[in-house]
Amino acid sequence: MTLVSWLPLAAVCTLGAISPGPSLALVISNTVGGGTSRGVATAVGHGVGVGLYALITAMGLGLLISNTPWLFSTIQYAGAAFLLFTAYKLLRSAVATTDQQQEQHQPRFSGFGGGFLVAFLNPKLAIFFLALFSQFVTAELTLADQLLMMLTAGGIDAIWFALVALGIGRTGLLALLKRNSVWVDRISGLIFISLASAVILQPALSS
C-alpha cells in the first residue's frame, strides 16, 4: 500500500474514531472513576477491538458477518446487553454516598476489557470497514497490507481515546468531573441505555 492510498484510509479512520458514541462515554467515565491509567487502558482495549475488526474485514470475514443475519443480530444484541449492564453499574454507582461505596460500585467491565467489548460487540464496525476497505481489499492484498490496515484503524482509535483520557487527566477538567462524578455516571448510563434501546427497538421501528 502506497502513502497516497494510505492517507485517505487514515483520514476516514480518524473521522470514525472522533465521532461521539458509547466508546467516548466509557473512556470519560473510566477516567473519572479510575484515573488516567484506567482511561488509557480503556482506549487501548477499544483500539485492539477496532483493529481486530479491521483485520477480520481485510481478510474477508467481515463479509460473512454482514451477510449472515443471525450472526450479525447475535453480536448486536450481545452488544446491547453489555451496554445495558454497564449502564446499570454506572447508575448504581451514582447513588453511592461515600468514596468507599463508589469504589465498590465501579463498573465491572472497566479498563482494557470494557474498551475491547464496546468495540468487539459492535458488528456495525464490520459494515464500516467493508465500506472503507472496499477500495483496498483485492486478491493481491498481502498480509503486510492487511496488518497495516489493522494497525492504522486500531492505532488511530487507541491514540484518539488515549488523548481524551490524558486531556481529562492532565488538566483541571478531571478534578471538575470527579466533583460531579455522579452526574458523569448518570449521563453515561443514560447514553448507554438509549443506544441499547435503539438496537433492541430497531426491528419494530423499521417494520
Automatic annotation (TrEMBL):
Membrane topology annotation: Multi-pass membrane protein
Record InterPro entries: LeuE-type
UniProt keyword annotations, A-Z: Cell membrane, Membrane, Transmembrane, Transmembrane helix
Any single GO CC term annotated in Swiss-Prot or TrEMBL for this entry: plasma membrane
Domain of life: Bacteria
Record has Membrane as a keyword: yes
A single GO molecular function term of this UniProt record: amino acid transmembrane transporter activity
Pfam families recorded: LysE
Intracellular or extracellular location(s): Cell membrane
Transmembrane annotation, as ranges: 6-28, 40-64, 70-91, 112-138, 158-177, 189-205
Protein name stated in the entry: LysE family translocator
Organism annotation: Ferrimonas lipolytica
